[in-house]
Fold:
Amino acid sequence: MLNIAVFCSGEGTNLQAIIEAVQRGDIKARLSLVVSDNKEAPALQRAKKAAVKTIFLDPQEFPSREEFEKELIAYLQEENIGLIVLAGFMRVLSPFFVQKYPNKIFNIHPSLLPAFKGSTNAVRDALNYGVKFSGATVHFVDEKIDNGPIVLQRVVEIEEDDNEESLRQKIHHQEHIIYPLAIKLFAEGRLKVKGRKVKINPKPQ
Amino acid sequence: MLNIAVFCSGEGTNLQAIIEAVQRGDIKARLSLVVSDNKEAPALQRAKKAAVKTIFLDPQEFPSREEFEKELIAYLQEENIGLIVLAGFMRVLSPFFVQKYPNKIFNIHPSLLPAFKGSTNAVRDALNYGVKFSGATVHFVDEKIDNGPIVLQRVVEIEEDDNEESLRQKIHHQEHIIYPLAIKLFAEGRLKVKGRKVKINPKPQ
Structure:
């Protein structure tokens, strides 16, 4: 059975949606580990409440990003993690880390990538740009920011009375649908990556 | 009544959609002029068939882009043009030209801008990127490429068996809906530009 680790730095609403999908049996995998770089992240409480093992790693206690990541990898290997899910994790993973898990790290971005790639506030940037549609994107993580092959996207219409908060809520709502779905498809071995394209194989009968 | 000029270099399928919307009475404006920089553009034939005045301007006959554009502007002023519609016009207009018609030039781009901004083959680029959704964008032209305020967008889903031709057809289909609609809204005075945002005022009762 696939072992999953979720990395969070904050609220953990995507983590919550994943926990619930695992509990419902939608995702056939074990949520083995929740990692945070922020001791106060509410995500850690959500994990504990669901009896998921948690680890807090303080980046300031490591002399370099590589040392931090080596420690992280040791924990992941101990739990035999086969999929890493970034869910509001506010650190960029180095190529050293990413190369250890090729096409085994998911990220979610609150825009229709490649629109607003690299933005740290893609919801606000989309509003300020004046786009009529935005959305959410689940993608594999490669060595460039917000760049890897796209797994799933969902579209959200921006209405004239939308503000940052209302648009954020709409996009979060879609995230909470597609992130568990992407993990479910991965756990079922149904994602086929070819170059930049991700095909979804049909469910075997 | 608003006088419109459409600039084309090629096939003119968007021009055709606009001609038909004017003929149906959906767009309350006069299609006064079709301009081409390509003598062989089928768009010129479509215009002639609809009894619209056409002008072919050969850029090679002018010593500079500015001289070319000055001649163009003379024709536009003669016809008292209030809206310029770029429909497959393969030349970039200079800031000199654009500043003469602030928020009075439309362009259409076959993607959900800002995704694939500046691409000369946004349909192929979207396919190769592996996005799950693309679309079409009508925007005002400013001094940067594919950059001005967005008027209308429509979304197209990319399916696994789509190729460049099938995706192009889907996007063209949406273009032929939103380009006449954007012109209709402009002609009715219902587009309000504020910074980068374009609001659509309700139809007066």
Observations:
- The longest strand of chain B covers residues 133-140.
- Residues 42 and 71 of chain B are 23 Å apart (CA to CA).
- Chain B has a mean pLDDT of 97.
- Strands of chain B lie at 3-8, 30-36, 54-56, 83-86, 105-109, 133-140, 150-157, 191-194, 197-200.
